[in-house]
Every structure is written in C-alpha cells, then in structure tokens.
Request: fold
Amino acid sequence: MGILSWLILGLVAGYLGKMIHPGEEGGGWLMTMLLGVAGAALGGAVSTLLGLGDATGLDLWSIIIATAGSVLVLMIYYRIKGRRQA
Reply:
C-alpha cells in the first residue's frame, strides 16, 4: 500500500475514530490523519496477532481495523491525559 493510500486511510479512520470516541483534543485534519495512521498501524498489528487479517488497502476491512485502532489510540491518549491532570 502506497503512502497516499495510508494517508487517505488515516484520514478516514481518524475521522471515524473521533466520531465514535469524541473528545476535546482538536488538532484539525492533520492530527486526525496522524491519529488514523497510528490507529491503522496499531489495529493492523493487533488484528494480525489475533489472526484476523491486517490493514492492506482501501477496502472496508482495512477501514474497520484502522478505525478500531484509532479508537484504541484515543482511549490510551485520554487515559494518559487524565492521569497527568490528576
């Protein structure tokens, strides 16, 4: 999968991840894209370890995996952010 595909997948997955797990992180489209790319990497690694496949293109399964990874990244981010404020 090329760089442009990763960026598009990241933007879509990051947007969906923010819609599923909303918060006040802001950041605009660039941070959304980075969130999605990180989510795709994390989701792909976890799903590969579980034997469910990986994020290999711009298909529905890759978007689902990347979105799940994005939600996981957001959950980790909020957990760490919450501990620092306490």
